[in-house]
Design brief:
alpha/beta, Rossmann fold, two-stranded antiparallel sheet, 12 strands, globular, metal ion binding
């Protein structure tokens, strides 16, 4: 019998392949649905991410949101620790961060109330499969322990799976936004 680590690795590999195929066919404007969701939260501190590899690009929606309130991006502090979020602006200077993602040149940390979460795979119940480091799970657990925190998964529709192998420590998404639509799981 396979253990959960191996099952997750196989699910992750399949999801990466689906994401790459979707990314290769990507057309500009995929952040439109994300912009629509964020418009309902103008001024609420939020964090997105700097896209790497074949991740769907949230930057246009983040730039729109930055005109109304604080927007940040994750900065990894160390393995097995929650993320911190540094204030980001569309024109701000960036430096190389861990894992190839850019981060603001000057650290200006704050705690967001909305997280736009990158992912490898998702399911209709709000399950999320990430890269396996647990950064977002630890971060969401920490933030949700302090105040309501909205987790919005942003992905290509092709990243959807019927079901994902999940553990009790996996933090659920409240909403998933794809190029095809908005799934509100709350």
């Amino acid at each position: 019998m396979q253990d959960l680590t191996q099952i997750k690795a196989e699910a992750r590999k399949a999801a990466f392949q689906r994401r790459k195929a979707a990314h290769d066919m990507n057309k500009p404007g995929t952040a439109g649905n994300l912009s629509e969701v964020l418009a309902g939260y103008r001024g609420v501190p939020l964090a997105g991410y700097m896209p790497i590899r074949t991740e769907i690009d949230p930057l246009p929606a983040m730039a729109e949101a930055a005109a109304h309130g604080p927007v940040g991006v994750p900065v990894i502090q160390a393995a097995e620790t929650p993320l911190k979020f540094s204030r980001w602006t569309p024109e701000g200077a960036l430096r190389d961060g861990p894992f190839g993602a850019k981060v603001p040149e000057i650290d200006d940390y704050f705690e967001p109330e909305i997280l736009i979460v990158p992912l490898v795979g998702f399911d209709a119940r709000g399950g999320r499969l990430g890269y396996g480091g647990g950064f977002y799970d630890r971060t969401l657990e920490l933030l949700r322990g302090k105040r309501p925190t909205l987790a919005i998964g942003f992905a290509y529709e092709a990243q959807r799976a019927d079901a994902l192998p999940l553990e009790p420590t996996d933090q659920p998404l409240d909403m998933i936004v794809t190029e095809n639509g908005i799934y509100d799981i709350r």
